Amino acid sequence: MPNGYNGKLLRVDLTSGELKDEHPEDALYRKYLGGSAMAMHYILEEMPAGVDALSPDNMLVFMLSVVTGAPISGQSRLMACAKSPLAVGIGDSQAGGFFPAELKFAGYDGIIVKGKAEKPVYLWVNNGQAELREAGHLWGKVTGEVEDTLRAELGDPKVEVLQIGPGGENLVKFAAIMNMCNRALGRTGMGAVMGSKNLKAIAVRGSKKVTVSNSKALTELYRKGTREIPNDGGMSMLQSYGTPGVVGGQQASGGLPSFNYNAGNIDNYEHLTGEYMAETILKENDTCFSCTIRCKRVVEKEDPVYALHEKYGGPEYETVACLGSYCGVTDLPAVAKANEYCAMYGLDTISCGATIAFAMECFENGLLTTEDTGGLDLSMGNAASVVELTRMIALREGIGDLLAEGSLRAAQKIGKGAEDYLITVKGTEIPAHMPQVKRSLGVVYATNPFGADHMSSEHDPSYTPDNKKALARLAEVGLHTPQDPLVLNTEKVRFAFITQCLYSLLDSVGVCQFVWGPSWQLYGHSELVDMVNAVTGWNLSLVEALQVGERRLNMQRAFNMRDGIDKSEDKLPKKFFKELTGEGPSKGIKLTHEELDRGLQQYYRIAGWDESTGNPTRGKLESLGLEWVANVVGAK
Amino acid sequence: MPNGYNGKLLRVDLTSGELKDEHPEDALYRKYLGGSAMAMHYILEEMPAGVDALSPDNMLVFMLSVVTGAPISGQSRLMACAKSPLAVGIGDSQAGGFFPAELKFAGYDGIIVKGKAEKPVYLWVNNGQAELREAGHLWGKVTGEVEDTLRAELGDPKVEVLQIGPGGENLVKFAAIMNMCNRALGRTGMGAVMGSKNLKAIAVRGSKKVTVSNSKALTELYRKGTREIPNDGGMSMLQSYGTPGVVGGQQASGGLPSFNYNAGNIDNYEHLTGEYMAETILKENDTCFSCTIRCKRVVEKEDPVYALHEKYGGPEYETVACLGSYCGVTDLPAVAKANEYCAMYGLDTISCGATIAFAMECFENGLLTTEDTGGLDLSMGNAASVVELTRMIALREGIGDLLAEGSLRAAQKIGKGAEDYLITVKGTEIPAHMPQVKRSLGVVYATNPFGADHMSSEHDPSYTPDNKKALARLAEVGLHTPQDPLVLNTEKVRFAFITQCLYSLLDSVGVCQFVWGPSWQLYGHSELVDMVNAVTGWNLSLVEALQVGERRLNMQRAFNMRDGIDKSEDKLPKKFFKELTGEGPSKGIKLTHEELDRGLQQYYRIAGWDESTGNPTRGKLESLGLEWVANVVGAK
Questions:
Q1: CATH superfamily of B9-205
Q2: Rounded distance, CA A424 to CA A431, Å?
Q3: d(CA B618, CA B492)
Q4: N or C: which end of chain A has fewer CB within 10 A?
């Protein structure tokens, strides 16, 4: 079988309508592996500084990786990068599903989109051929309808569709890009970027085989993983209850963000659990291409108020927290309905839920009134209002128009101290893992180039003395001294940075972070390297792989640096420094500025960044083979 | 078989006569692996700043590693570290042989020597027991006699002896520590440190088995290597001609330092080659414990002038260059005789040869006269004078007393511009690989913590387009873009730094750099990791291994920093910036300050060191799990 990687990218200029194939060299694939590392390569090379995120000058880059579509669990993911209309700086999001593998089967590793179409269009990629088509008839339609329409007009029920919903069309700042109507490239508003380009959808169909250099090794790895699932507590839990299976544990540790992050627990949390979902509204499990874990939820319910349709999947943990406990809500069908709206209209459930929770705290404190809301009662805990507000945000109706700007911009408009109720970093709403009880997340949330993200590093509980499986894997990257989750010391900052590089690798090689990862996942990073080698025939090492992750992180941070964004944006919400309320074990816990500031300075030092600016140094970029990036962004 | 490493160190306080065993934890072994990384751990923890290298306060630490004594090629090496009496800063040297494995069989991984004995003593380590014994009867004796005497008085011909000769007793600044009378821990004057402590020798005998966790894997690796030797040009050359097998290639590239480094070639070089040695004075090959390569030369010659005795081995490449071409000499028996003197008296052949070459250039230019030399004709090319001067240096006779101080101190005493003739960095004489034609060596020579060293990084020719075997291995550490040997650019500085970390790893895991290494060697670094795991049962990764190498380098540099040594000492001899003479391909080539300075700044940046001081930053130390070192040395 051949060694090395022979791939192809599609370039789309929406302004001119021109489409073009490009064949990157094998060396470029080995340097970046794909995903958002490779996307950053093109963005930094070709995009000027300081563009408006919603202007035609923004580039929207979709990338697979060298392993996407190979027959193994957890590889079918698509990454999208562009300047973010929500976050201050770069945007980045990912999702799994069948679209990623299908795009590979259609002959492409990525699509680089520039410019803006005069009228709505969609891109039709069919087995190595691509064309732009009119999409006027799709504009304004929800995702399910668009998918059905496209499959019908393209005459193939197996066409996979990536699209924006009305949320993206309406430039909701946290609009998602949807795949299969239920997988969201949710974070940082990539849907708004796609909407700003008048690109409604990308439909793909392909039948090309993925080349695997060592099929036997890959098959063995696949089978080994599959055999292990029943013996692996984490994997079995995912299979049985999906990500909402963690709700109970979060509540038990006082780490279930509730009431707009004022508490770490909520009464009646049992009704938000994966177990409760399985007993009530769960129809079945769903999966991504070639994955044996099948963690994805499908819910269904006939109901006059909260009817749930299987097409739109079911809520993940982040969703039950953000649209549930964040808002003081424990009504699972209501949460699932709001989730369905997010899938239909194309919104990020995390930012949407957190923005609603923010609005509710404003309402509770009189900064918003029924006059502002058009009569909608935004009292904390009002489930019906959460559902209704989700729809209003997507369609920019009433108060929804304000909240569609994201909570940071909304707070600036509301004034009157509304910023005290924000739970954002760099404009990105904070996901449902609390740095109060997982201290390393504080530095990662603060420093992560596209704002607070829970999938950008390993969480503290993995680095505790009893976690033998995780410790064995962490040892391989030089982490040998487990720590208390409530402590932020030098070793914990090392853990944060090193695992951040590893998660950055995962988003470059484009694999699911429940299947592949540095600690509790089904496969460890050494097996990830073996997998890449089985597919490509390379002799990639863990050293190179870790460098790829560090490259992506530095490139994203360098992008921000060029746009004038430095460590002054690396800060956590004010409320994180106030004692948590609630009655759980986290009651009374707060972060301190002293601890965080010390941790941040350590983080910059350990990352090899300039302590005074938080920017990547020329030396760090040079050491990663990125001297050209240092030149592009003017690193010192 | 057991997992993890269970080892023991011997602590020797020569002042009090106290001996003590110490059992480091498995985690400490995994962090350092052994060798000079582990030695630096103890030195930085226990030795105060600013000690005089020849005072009792200096610590002399001998270390093996977790793999020493295991049945595989290239593992039987001993590392010695202390503050150097020759180099400005830390000292570091290594040698192979049978002593290292024997020390492991005797139950120890290392010996930490402090203080100073009142009278000469030797240390007798016998199967887990150790004692200090009187050595008055051995003082003043040459190595061969001491070894015979000790074996006789200990009643065991298999006792292995590590010792200083009269050179070390006389505190010759570049005195070596000898093992088997023909393996020199040569560089940076460790023999003088041992002499200053009145420690004449360490005799060891042991019968303990080395624990191997996975014997099958180790045996397979051993056999794989052995099978490959005949098909491997480099290994076959080593086996047939030893290291002097490279003389022809060096001459051909204009990289054979000649006439005190004024030229890169010499007429009649053929008489210095390994081939010529094999035809004339070679008796047989010798080997180190369990090594199948057998590269070591044994020469013998009955001769009224230059009689050669097999006990003292034969000259390596460095020796034929330094005691030969450096001095304009191509008389192999004379070079071999000078080499024998170095082995008998315990001197480093590199520093000795380079110091004599320096003296010869002084003599040629009238800075030294026969009045200074007691009549000895130091004309460049006078072979008999090289031999005689070697003996005189060891015994500090006449002009030998001045030169025994090393060339830097000698130049300072001679004055009159003698410093222009120096070929030293930080006081350490430069070995026989020319940065003029291997440009990366310029930055490594200049920055290496214990002065110019040719075994501290890979050489440029390994990183050229045709070198497939080396390129495959270098790719595993992220080096993908081969370069011209005559160029020093960013990629070449990356190559220098990354391979320096890998060589630093080799001196920590204590393996032979002809057998294990990052490029042309029999085994690559991935196999090195496999080997460590086969022995220890760990799951060590290449990432961790590379960190060990970077740790050692940073710890050595941090040691220097604490003693006030910074980048102002990172400079190359003046003559490197003058055009080379000679008639070879390097004629007319010179380094430029502009290129070197740019390379040095890039090197500091890539190393993560402070560009203005060249010192390790706190962040770099923290990132390597060495926050405590940052505290000890006051890193910022």
A1: Aldehyde ferredoxin oxidoreductase, N-terminal domain (3.60.9.10)
A2: 9
A3: 26
A4: N
Query: pLDDT below 70 — which residues of chain B?
Result: 1-3
Distance CA B32, CA B42 (A): 11
The answer to whether the CB of B125 falls within 8 A of the CB of B154 is: no
- Beta-carbon separation of B606 and A627 below 8 A: no
Token pair for B347: 């001197």
What are the chain B neighbours of A472 within 8 Å (beta carbons)?
539
Helix, strand, coil percent values for chain A (each to nearest 5) = 45, 15, 40
B26 touching chain A per CB within 8 A: no
ipTM of the complex, rounded to two decimals: 0.93
How many beta-carbon contacts under 8 Å exist across A and B? Answer: 107
Could you give the 3-state DSSP secondary structure of residue A425? strand
Question: Residue B136: exposed, middle, or buried by beta-carbon count in 10 A (0-12, 13-18, 19+)?
Answer: exposed
- Containing H/E element for B533? helix B525-536
For residue A468, what are the CA distances in angstroms to A464, B251, B535? 9, 56, 22
Q: Which member of A478, A526, A547 has the closest CB to residue B547?
A: A478
- Strand, helix or coil at B308? strand
The tokens for B226 are 């052995």
- Is B477 touching A (CB cutoff 8 A)? yes
pTM above 0.90, yes or no: yes
Residue B145 neighbours by CB under 8 Å, 6+ apart: none
Tokens (6 digits) for B346: 């315990």
- Name the token pair of A511: 């694999």
Q: Which two tokens stand for residue A259?
A: 């009431």
Interface check for B363 against chain A (CB to CB < 8 A): the answer is: no
User: Which of A529, A536, A543 would you mutate first to test chain B, the one with the most B CBs within 10 A?
Assistant: A543
Tens of pLDDT, residue by residue over A168-180, are 999 999 999 999 9
Say which amino acid occupies A521.
Answer: Q
Number of Cβ within a 10 Å radius of residue A590: 12
Domain ranges of chain A: 9-205, 259-422, 440-633
**Tens digit of each residue's pLDDT (9 = 90 or more) over B531-589:** 999 999 999 999 999 999 999 999 999 999 999 999 999 999 999 999 999 999 999 99
Q: Which two tokens stand for residue B164?
A: 């200083």
Per-residue CA distances from A460 to A254, A277, A487 (Å):
14, 27, 9
Provide Rg for chain A, Cα atoms: 22
Tracing tokens 């759980």 back to the chain, one arrives at A584
Among B472, B540, B608, beta carbon nearest to A539: B472
What is the token pair recorded at B460?
């440029």
CB-CB contact of A203 with A150 (8 Å): yes
Q: In whole angstroms, what is the distance from residue A312 CA to residue A148 CA?
A: 13
- Token representation of residue B225: 């290597």
Q: How confident is the model at residue A460 (pLDDT cuts 50, 70, 90)?
A: very high
Beta bridge partners of A123: A132, A202
**Selection from B258, B389, B275, B259 nearest residue B332 by Cα:** B275
- Percent of chain A beyond pLDDT 90? 99
Given the structure tokens 């909407």, which residue do they identify?
A195
> Do B259-422 and B440-633 share a fold?
no
- The topology (CATH level 3) of B440-633 is 1.10.599
Secondary structure class of A297 (helix, strand, coil): strand
Two structure tokens written together for B312: 């003292």
CA dihedral B112, B118, B119, B125 (to 10 degrees): -30
